[in-house]
Design the sequence.
């Protein structure tokens, strides 16, 4: 469809001839596109915000813990307290080959940390390097615990975001500086900016992580392990191997392999599936609401264009009389419909993007965007394509009405 400069001027003149009507008609399309884009961006932000509660967790993770038994087994009464040990890590690696990373975790009691005249109350956690494959830290400065730290029981630590801000109020890289936790000094080797997340040994931002071997010696924990976290190999469904994981740990400690309370196994795979299914439904609802509102706006455009065609009956008849072809009339009416819907639709996209950008800026801390509310580029392009298509469809009926006008009927109408 070829449109020259004169055609553009005529389209603009026609649309601005009745500004109120054009504005109110375009507002329906504007609001429909705004609702669609804003809801999609907001839905993405809410989803990301919800997922931040499991920040850094691999989706195929199991967390194994020891609770009092709920069933008697081999002469032991129910209600017996027990604890896992470091050998359970090797048992799981050997007897459940579907597991990928297996990491023991020790949790310490509340302590007090000092740096200069600043102090805070962190939670202490003993960890191994494999933890990064299970709970990925957001390292802002430095690094995480490595193998040499474990082997040599180095007095090093990775501090959470809140601990960093409480102790190092002047900011800057704290790596290489030493903090005192109770009566022991530790060298800071990293700052973890993770926030939220599944709570293991306290919130990540309020936690100090040290090598697990150091914690075993410093806190006189021996071979005890509080929690074991593990991930499955690609393609492995953790729900299928959960009973075998429980049985492997249970048998070594004379616990009924079916005792789900005694050997607590938390499977994040099921939780992530539930969230994914929830947001699939939410996305479908967003598209239904947005496209429904857009369709209502397009119908409004079509109705107004029908009124415009009726008002211009004489003008169209005269054009036909002096040689205008049906194709020229069709092109004119459809172009007016497309321009009206496209201008209104693009305005709706821009306004929605601006609102989403403001939400994103409000969720930015230390230059890091905590939650992304923006829609993707191709999503915006698709919305523009949908608007253009609706504009084309909205102009078909008025264009067909205009093409059916005959010069004689136009003169009679005059």
Sequence:
């Amino acid at each position: 469809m070829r449109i020259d400069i004169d055609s553009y001027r005529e389209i603009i003149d026609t649309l601005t001839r009745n500004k109120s009507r054009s504005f109110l008609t375009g507002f329906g399309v504007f609001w429909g596109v705004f609702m669609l884009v804003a809801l999609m961006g907001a839905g993405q932000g809410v989803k990301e915000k919800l997922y931040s509660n499991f920040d850094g967790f691999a989706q195929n993770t199991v967390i194994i813990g020891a609770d009092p038994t709920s069933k008697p087994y081999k002469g032991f009464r129910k209600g017996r307290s027990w604890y896992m040990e470091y050998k359970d890590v090797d048992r799981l690696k050997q007897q459940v080959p579907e597991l990928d990373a297996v990491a023991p975790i020790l949790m310490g009691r509340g302590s007090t940390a000092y740096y200069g005249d600043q102090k805070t109350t962190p939670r202490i956690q003993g960890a191994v390097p494999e933890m990064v494959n299970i709970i990925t830290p957001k390292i802002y400065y430095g690094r995480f615990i490595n193998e040499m730290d474990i082997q040599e029981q180095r007095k090093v630590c990775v501090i959470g975001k809140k601990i960093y801000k409480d102790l190092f109020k002047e900011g800057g890289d704290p790596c290489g500086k030493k903090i005192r936790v109770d009566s022991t000094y530790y060298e800071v080797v990293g700052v973890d900016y993770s926030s939220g997340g599944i709570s293991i040994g306290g919130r990540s931002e309020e936690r100090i992580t040290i090598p697990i071997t150091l914690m075993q010696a410093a806190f006189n924990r021996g071979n005890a392990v509080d929690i074991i976290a593990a991930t499955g190999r690609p393609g492995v469904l953790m729900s299928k191997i959960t009973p075998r994981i429980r049985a492997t740990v249970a048998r070594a400690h004379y616990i009924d392999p079916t005792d789900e309370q005694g050997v607590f196994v938390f499977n994040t795979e099921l939780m992530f599936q539930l969230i994914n299914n929830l947001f699939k439904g939410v996305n479908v609802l967003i598209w239904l609401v947005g496209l429904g509102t857009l369709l209502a706006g397009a119908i409004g455009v079509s109705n107004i264009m029908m009124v415009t065609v009726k008002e211009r009956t004489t003008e169209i008849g005269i054009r036909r009389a002096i040689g205008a072809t049906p194709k020229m009339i069709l092109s004119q009416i459809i172009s007016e419909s497309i321009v009206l819907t496209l201008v209104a639709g693009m305005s709706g996209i821009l306004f929605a993007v601006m609102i989403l950008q403001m939400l994103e800026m409000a969720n930015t801390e230390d230059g890091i965007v905590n939650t992304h509310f923006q829609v993707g580029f191709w999503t915006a392009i698709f919305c523009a394509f949908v608007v253009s298509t609706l504009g084309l469809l909205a102009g078909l009926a008025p264009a067909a009405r205009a093409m059916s006008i005959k010069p004689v009927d136009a003169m009679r109408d005059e």
